[in-house]
Amino acid sequence: MSDEAIRDVVRQKYGQAALRVTTAGSTSCCGTASSRGTCDPVTSNLYGEGETADLPETAVAASLGCGNPTALAELAPGETVLDLGSGGGIDVLLSARRVGPRGKAYGLDMTDEMLALARENQRKAGVTNVEFLKGEIEAIPLPEASVDVIISNCVINLSADKDRVFAEAFRVLKPGGRFAVSDVVVRGEVPVAVRRSVELWIGCIAGALEETDYREKLAKAGFEAIDVEPTRIYRTEDAQAFLDREGIDAKAIAPIVDGKFMSAFIRARKPTAA
Which end of the chain, N or C, is more open, meaning fewer C-beta atoms within 10 Å of its C-beta? Predict the structure, then answer.
């Protein structure tokens, strides 16, 4: 599948997800709310009730991530933060709260439906230090050295050109700026057919990097102090119902895939001399 074809599939899936939230008030990574049970190990229990209590319900319902980068990025008042693939805006709104009125939170998304939902959630939340931008994470529409922190919530694994994503992230970060994202990571070798099916369950589109590849690509882009911290490790029993529908025997593949797929928090830093 070409890069453009992958991008079109992602745009379509997340546009549909935004519309489901708008019309039904709920969604999940794999489809309608009725199928959420098979996705819960990925998308559930990522945010504390205290974090989301004063956010619009549609911002919470549209959360399709696999982590909580705003809680782990250690945002400080006055900083400028950029969320790659901001979706319904939950992480942007949480970031805006953390950086305060002297700071700024940008959200970048390529899907018109998600941008419309995010801007409506911003209006409902009454947050003014937020701006949602239309664009692709492979071509960030911001100047060089313009943000302090880049966050993302399980979106980079959807990109067909991760080298470009990391190069763009490096470009827009200020010297000493921080890269702090949640993403899906694979540890070790997994048969291609099985990998595609498990990734489909985790994130709707295959594309997760192996941990070593992730580190190497970040280093190639110029980042230092690279760290990969698992936050949620997926077991075959978590995906058993989904794999059964795909015609894959979860028990049979358990010895070769169990524990190899995970959500992880990936940290890196742009050198201060960059």
Answer: N
Structure confidence at residue 22 (pLDDT): 59
Residue type, 204: C
pLDDT tens, residue by residue, 118-142: 999 999 999 999 999 999 999 999 9
List alpha helices for 156-249, DSSP H: 162-172, 192-203, 211-221, 240-245
For residue 262, report the phi and psi dihedrals to the nearest 5 degrees.
-155, 155
DSSP single-letter state for residue 208: P
CA distance 72 to 194: 31
Rounded CA separation 73/268 (Å): 11
CB 181 within 8 A of CB 159: no
Residue 110 φ/ψ, nearest 5 degrees: -100, 0
3-state DSSP assignment of residue 176: strand
**196-218 mean pLDDT:** 75
